[in-house]
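I'll show an entry:

:::
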Amino acid sequence: MLAECTVVVPTIGRPSLGVLLDALAAAPGQRPAELVVVDDRPDGPPLDVDRPGLPPVRVVRTGGGGPARARNLGWRVARTPWIAFLDDDVVPDADWYERLAQDLTGLPADVAGSQGRVRVPLPEERRPTDWERGTAGLATSSWITADLAYRRGALAAVGGFDERFPRAFREDSDLALRVMDTGGRLVRGERWITHPVRPTDRWVSLRVQAGNADDVLMRRLHGPTWRERADAAVGRRPRHLAVTTAGLAAVGLAAARRPRAAVAAALAWAAGTAEFAWVRIVPGPRDRAEVTTMALTSAAIPPLATWHFLRGAVQHRRVTPWRGLPDLVLFDRDGTLVRDYPYNGDPELVKPVPGAEEAVDALRARGVRVGVVSNQSGVARGIITREQVDACMARLDELLGPFETIQVCPHGPEDGCTCRKPAPGMVKTACAELDVDPARTVVIGDIGADVEAAAAAGAVGIIMPTPVTRKQEVAAAPRRAQTLTAAVGDVLAGRW
């Protein structure tokens, strides 16, 4: 079973990554097909991932796109039916490989994912701090990607993680809800990881209030009942709003020289703040440092949480369902990737158009598969040979490759084949070869036949006009881009 699974670990280079890798290297049992470590740092030296005993390791880099983008890149470059996500600050049990195999073996087809079990060790010699209690909540959380395996097909069907969630917060719940909306079930397995409490500073509770903006996005995407569906706690936002309102009212009334009303509002603010501080102090260690931190942050959290909530309401006032990137982009060859020399049989004349290399590399860097679909009727007309076509394609692959699929139609317009564009044959064959849904495929070409072939196959077509493109073809195309760079830019921006 593990031969059908890739383990994906997104990381920002924390020292805990080494602890995780050591645990995976030392664990007995069969290894998964691959371990993909996604380096989500903007820059920095190569990560130290060399450990005897690890499965084959591949390191890919996002350049600092955030946890959702990092996980997306990890599963996109994988080629196995199952993707097991692990966070870089967890420690799998010694039998994790064995348990993972047992958890995934024989699952019904409608099961889209399997969540592992999490323990959070807390200090035994004292009561836990506010931060430690918050981390302990991971042990009972649903669908967190600290240890969660998904079918790759389920991820592809919904476009993976929504990259509009910039933090490691709510992006996993959002993905779970979208997967379940497709009819997929999520189950709990029997494998275990330990999630230690990371050391942090005393102001961490202020920084995490930025997640209130993500809650707004969740509500916009999934409606007012999203918390119940995601098994998420309600929180104190209504109380935070009331306390913040009381504080602002006290200041405003004082400025308006209404002292009695200002005092009443100030007392309401003080009572709300004191109550909030008390419920955070009582279960904690109650030492001087913790009490001081709770008192100070309890005064700051209500207005900060309210601010982030309002910011989210403005930022996410209009949202559309997440589509993600396509799984595959197919390019026409002549006039799109390379300069158009009619019936070219000379590899020396294969010259990329401006921006072609950068555009194709940009797709690969995000884990999008790329291929070529090309009409070559010169073979049927006797102008060039199939060997010459293959030589030109080999030159193209040398210059801009590697392409994961190259489809060529050697027939003429009168041959009545099903592969020559605008027929969908080459697009469908490419998708079948790579096990990609045509609905998550984009075809980019310079004439109407390219976008017509895409539509006939159930894919999305983008026309990139050149001097040979007829005006009526441009007008009929549902999506247009002035250059190859612009077309790929639209794809990467989700406009496809």
